[in-house]
Amino acid sequence: MSGAEISALGSFMARAHEGQARTLLEQQGLPGRRLEAWRYTPLRALETTGFAAPAPVAPDEARALLARLAPEADASHRVVFVNGALVPELTSLPEGVRLVAADAPLVADRPISVLNTALAQPGLGLHVSAGADAGQIALVALVTGDAPVSTHLAHQVTLEADARLTLLDIQSGEGPYLANPVLGVRVAEGARLTHLRVQQDSQDAVNLAFVNADVSSRGLYDSFTLTLGARLSRHEVLAHLGGSNAAVHVNAAQLLAGNRHADLTSVIRHAAPDCISRQTVKNVIMEGGHGVFQGKIHVDRIAQKTDGYQMNQALLLSERAQIDSKPELEIYADDVKCSHGATVGALDDEQLFYLRARGIPHDEARAMLVRAFLLDALSLVQDETASALLDRRVETWWQKRDPE
Amino acid sequence: MNDFLKISGLCAQIDDNGTPKEILRGLDLDIPKGEIHAIMGPNGSGKSTLSYVLAGRDDYEVTGGSATFDGADLLALEPEERAALGVFLAFQAPVELPGVNNANFLRTAVNAVRRAREEPELDAVGFLKAVRAETKHLHMSDEMLKRNVNVGFSGGEKKRNEVLQMRMLRPRFAILDETDSGLDIDALRIVAEGVNSLRGPDFSALIITHHQRLLDYIQPDRVHVMAKGQIIHSGGAEVALALEAQGYQQYLEAVA
Fold first, then answer.
1. I need a labelling partner for A394 at 20 to 30 A (CA). Which of A379, B50, B79, B183 fits?
2. Could you tell me if A269 and A250 are in contact, meaning their C-beta atoms sit under 8 angstroms apart?
3. Which residue of A has its CA nearest to B58?
4. A260: closest CA among A177, A202, A175?
5. What residues contact residue A42 under an 8 Å CB cut-off, 6+ apart?
6. CA-to-CA distance for A391 and A257, rounded, in angstroms?
């Protein structure tokens, strides 16, 4: 009987390209609870769903979809993908920026990377020349379909020495689907990439994303991820600080209601001296939501004077809300400054009463305290337009969340 | 009837690690419109509990009696509905709200109350004008508006911030819960001025205090002595002076 059943893995294997990733996918299957890194986010729930290749979408329909799902990407330079294919009619780039073939390399021990490479669709290949300031570019990936489909975009962004770019990465869609994007990042000496990711996928979607960032001396990869959508999502970051005085920020906010599950997993590897890593991750979890944070800071023997900071905080707004938090420090150098912390709590009754005693209705008072909780993380986004966008998204999420 | 605040036989308890602990034991108190009353009493007599029960804090369970304000059943209302009706509690220890800007908080509160009272909301300019007039009046720097609510405020600044909120929300009945504790003379004067400036035929207040000191600046119409969850003696301003001179013992013995 089993051969006749539809499975996620079966549907992926039927579409996989020949090569190493296909072999790995076939051997390992989708990660389950027994794999330590996937203990809190087993993909077993996917097993009975088959994912088809998405149908192409006409430019007019893509335009309407963009206006509906990502109106904020209207004014800026942008690269738009719908159902895994570039929509040239909606794409515009600033001068000094080239589209090249994307070549996000396989990371064999990361199941999200394996799945992506096995089914890879060419994504954004962006190259910013030395010393150029490319301003802000929106990378918009939308998916639509009635039956479960999956996209596996492979993006690669390269900043040459002293280049600058703000990448506004918007993921959204309608209906049931799996989005499985991989972004390779190369930040050369003295370059700065700001990566702001808003994951506002459909409530029936699954999002499995992987960022593999390599930062050279004096370079900065400054990232912030706002997770609002998808029934199941994982945002996995592997950041490698390969030259002295490099810095990486892996900040995030995850807002979960219903029975949504969101996982932020990161490994920050200090492989050179005098580097800085910063991580503030806030979780607001309501109803039966389940948040996961796994953050590892790895400091090589050579990475003296490492300055690492990691903080994960969760605000649980219901009895059923859950957070699993697993911070890890692995340090082989002897002269480092690394701190980490995790807190879990509910809204403070005394604060809530104070606001209500001043006439502020209960729901509005709760919203004020939730925003206050998120402020430490959201205020890390310095780009003003991006910061305003995140505020609006948080506000809309709060207003549209399922009533309790 | 001139009864503005009317409390009859009020009983309330708190959950003390699983055992109910009775704190208010049949308290009676009437405060007519336009009058300022003071309650004095030893620690543990239930003064703060009374203020929390009147403001609507739900840690306390009301087990008997009633409290009406201007004819409305106060105990049936949510805290925000009581505020809209005109009840204001100046907290003994105002809580800090990290991440909540003081000006935004105040504007949200003012407009929530105005909405509930069917008054037009204040826009940013109108609000700023109104709040600047008040901060000036209270000798507060505008810088306090930019900070997070009560975060890093000194004791005196917190109390001034309470008075600022009181003036902006224009209550008809204010409860000051030991607002004078820990204040120097200048701050005490400012608090007193804040109350005195609201004094009028439509404003009443209940001042909970340990000391005569505040009552040197706010002349009370009546002074009540509270012990063991009840009012055990009531009189004019002279009661406060007698307490200051002779302590609570005389009253406690009388009811023992």
1. B79
2. no
3. A353
4. A202
5. A31, A32, A33
6. 18
Measuring CA to CA, which residue among A110, A105, A114 is closest to residue A23? A114
Say yes or no to pLDDT of A298 above 90: yes
List the one residue out of A285, A209, A234, A287 whose CA is nearest residue A42. Answer: A234
**Candidates B57, B98, B116; nearest CB to A359:** B116
Backbone angles phi, psi at A24, to 5 degrees: -60, -45
The minimal CB distance from B99 to the residues A354, A358, A372 is found for: A372
Quick one: tokens of A195?
Answer: 């990566």
Secondary structure of residue B156 in the 3-state scheme:
helix
- For A234-256, the pLDDT digits (tens) are 999 999 999 999 999 999 999 99
Please give the mean pLDDT across all residues of chain A: 93
pLDDT recorded at residue B142: 87
Smallest CA–CA distance, residue B236 to chain A, in Å, is 30
Tell me if the domain spanning B3-95+172-255 has CATH number 3.40.50.720. Answer: no
pLDDT of residue B249: 84
Reduce the DSSP state of residue A178 to 3 states and report it: strand
Using an 8 Å Cβ cutoff, are B42 and B250 in contact?
no
Q: Which residue has the tokens 């004791």?
A: B155
Residue A404's pLDDT is 43
pLDDT at position A87 over 60? yes
Residue whose structure tokens are 């200090």: A270
pLDDT number for residue A2: 40
Question: What does the alpha-carbon distance between residue A312 and residue A325 come to, in Å, rounded to a whole number?
Answer: 8
At A207, is the pLDDT very low, low, confident or very high (cuts 50, 70, 90)?
very high
Task: Give DSSP secondary structure letters for A327-373.
Answer: EEEEE--SS-EEEEEEEEE---HHHHHHHHHTT--HHHHHHHHHHHH
* Measured distance CA(B67)–CA(B233) in Å, rounded: 20
Sign of CA dihedral B167, B173, B178, B180: positive
Tell if the CB–CB gap between B109 and A375 is shorter than 8 Å.
no
Task: Note the pLDDT tens digit of each residue in A311-324.
Answer: 999 999 999 999 99
State the ipTM, two decimals.
Answer: 0.96
Cβ contact, residue pair B83, A353, below 8 Å: no
